[in-house]
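Look over this entry.
=====
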Amino acid sequence: MTEVETELVELERLFGGGLYLDAADPAALGAYTAWTRDLPPEMNSSAALIPVPDAPGVPEAIAGRTVMHLRVAYTGPAQRGRDLVRPLEAGPVLMGGLTDMPACESGSVHGEPDTPVAWFGDTALVRDLPHRALGALARAAEPGPGAPLIAEVRHMGGALAADGQAMVGHREAAYFTNVLTMPGAEVDPEAARRVRETASALAPWSLGRLPTFLPSGPHSTPEVVRSAYPAQDLDLLRRLKAEHDPTDVFAFGHRLDWGPPGAEPHAGLRPCSSNPRTGGGGHRPAQSR
């Protein structure tokens, strides 16, 4: 790659922030997805079911609870944003708030750590989230064997659903889902099993994965990488590889295939850092699946 062209979005301010709502009711996530059905494209949102530990340093308002963290970023007038979000504020808001803010502060919406944090999980872009799919996500965040899991849903659509030159697969997805656990030195095997079970439960509605949330290291197998692209994009990527890198010099990172037929995995394939960069839209997984 020798050149990248990027088009910037002119945006000075937005209405947004995060609300922590009580998620003791299993229908909480369903209420969120129902709310997303008729939103204007200027409304960007996500919701995560988080089992918050009762530990030192955790705010008393949410300690020891399972909460739904609702994140909002609305690029239209602030008052219109308040009106759109009002149905979700009907229940008790435990913590957080929404406000008009400079666009440069959009990274605060998700309320994530400002230091690298590794996570283990699996993701899926889904056509829809019917009752059974929502039930699988809600069960993932319930207390169970092993380390706790976080279940997240991000509303897709808007400009992302429009045709464009960027190679972004599965644009027709209605939601992005992510089920994850925060590992210590090693991934808890019971938590990993529950992640895989949830991924299997969502499979009937899954279109594939999102390229920006592909795992790294040994979990970034060609099968996993291929799930991020539709067939026509895979064909184009393979043609470009054959034309510009026939000797497989660039044998690292996310690979569609191990190499020429019959070839062993290239020695240049190395696990990526376990200290991923974080961003306003979520952590980059150090390990996944």
The CA atoms of residues 2 and 220 lie 25 Å apart. Residues 189-202 form the longest helix (14 residues). Confidence is low (pLDDT under 50) at residues 261-289. The chain has six helices and eleven strands.
